[in-house]
Specification:
200 residues, 26% strand, 6 helices, Aminopeptidase, alpha+beta
């Protein structure tokens, strides 16, 4: 078991070093996309990103992993730790800042080691696009990038969820090959999500 985990760590580190800065050449609708982990100097752009959601009347920020309620240095350190060491409950995961040029357009969370029960409740992939940049192809580019990372990590299937009234996300997931496998309120009690599988 220990040897398997060490091998998994080596695989994640190897493909991350290749893929973290990958541009989205295979997504012609979006130009010059870059993906990287948050850094110490990113607080200002991330706070502006959160503020834009607040100004748009949105109470939550998708894929932000508790950023709004956290002290930034603690949050950034946790994201780095999740990528290198993993979380006791979730295993290793990576949260990417998704940038076009120097503008932060979205956040992308890829959770490679989720136990099956958690994958069926929260999904392997989460993403969000800032309000002013939606309907421009970014979500599709981000999801395709996440799927390529999952594939390179050795996964054969990714599970994604979104609320049943989130028509834009449903269309994005289906566009990327998502097949509906169920519905339920495992993510937020009392609010139904739709769950999709994408074969890799």
């Amino acid at each position: 078991m220990k040897q398997e985990r060490q091998a998994g760590q080596t695989t994640v580190c190897r493909f991350f070093s290749v893929c973290a800065q990958r541009r989205a050449e295979d997504h012609p609708e979006v130009k010059d996309m870059r993906y990287r982990l948050p850094e110490d100097g990113d607080e200002a752009i991330l706070r502006a990103y959160v503020q834009e959601h607040t100004d748009s009347g949105e109470a939550s920020v998708s894929a932000s992993m508790g950023l709004r309620a956290s002290a930034y240095p603690d949050w950034a350190a946790r994201m780095q730790r999740n990528a290198s060491e993993g979380d006791a409950q979730w295993g290793r995961s990576q949260l990417f800042l998704c940038l076009e040029g120097e503008r932060l357009v979205g956040l992308l969370s890829v959770r490679y080691e989720l136990p099956e029960a958690l994958a069926g409740a929260i999904g392997h992939i989460g993403y969000g696009v800032r309000p002013g940049e939606r309907r421009k192809g970014y979500a599709t580019a981000m999801l395709r990038h996440a799927l390529s990372l999952c594939r390179e990590s050795g996964m054969t299937r990714a599970i994604l969820g979104c609320y049943e009234d989130n028509i834009a996300s449903i269309r994005t997931i289906e566009k990327c090959g998502g097949v509906l496998i169920g519905e339920g309120d495992g993510y937020q009690k009392g609010r139904i999500s739709r769950y999709y599988a994408i074969m890799l």
